[in-house]
Amino acid sequence: MTQTPIRVLIVDDHGIVRKGTRALLDRIPDFVVVGEGSNGKEAVAQAAILQPDVILMDLMMPEMDGIEAIGRITASQPDSRILALTSFAADDKLFPAIKAGALGYMLKDADPEDLIRAIHQVHRGEPSLNPSMARKVLQELGRPAKPAPAPSPGPDPLTERELEVLQLVAQGLTNQQMAEQLSVAEVTIRTHVSNILSKLHLANRVQATLYALREGLTTLENDAE
Predict the structure, then answer these.
(1) What's the rounded Cα separation, in Å, for the pair 9 and 18?
(2) At what angle do helices 15-26 and 112-123 cross, to 10 degrees?
(3) Model pLDDT, residue 225
(4) Do 73 and 52 meet the contact criterion of CB atoms below 8 Å apart?
(5) What is d(CA 150, CA 215) in angstroms, rounded to the nearest whole number?
């Protein structure tokens, strides 16, 4: 159990969804709902005021949709942890949400246990994106014409160890799991991940995972094993 409750902001234009999600989270000591919003404008305003640990963001809302709200929030608060929620696994919403800075993406009809697990993952800064959704993003991006086993996106390419860590990130391993596998301290892994995101100009681990998939550093088949 989390010692300090995770502070959650719920944003959805359907009141019954907000109340239902709040009722679920209120029963769990790990969470405390600090606010609710019914559209993207309210989400941006409340995120700035409340500074929640995790934002549950609906994508289809009036006045300002969730994708625009995600972009505005992450632009002003780069460390924001946002889990996008939607009723449809539509390609035209999935990729823009991740590109805007969402750290996770899941359907509203997911099991409550899956939502709880996703909130914990996003709060830890870990991606919450299952392989089937990652595949949809890859289809939207288009597969590369040729493999790139050792990408060098700029004047400061990834080191051999950073490439190794990137592959493990793409496989969904936590910092602790990577530290154990590579026999290094967890703080060392955090440093490597930070360097990877900085060098590749990526916002979070989801984008790093998609980068690794695009560049042929790992495959969805490997992730599923």
Answers:
(1) 10
(2) 80
(3) 44
(4) no
(5) 8
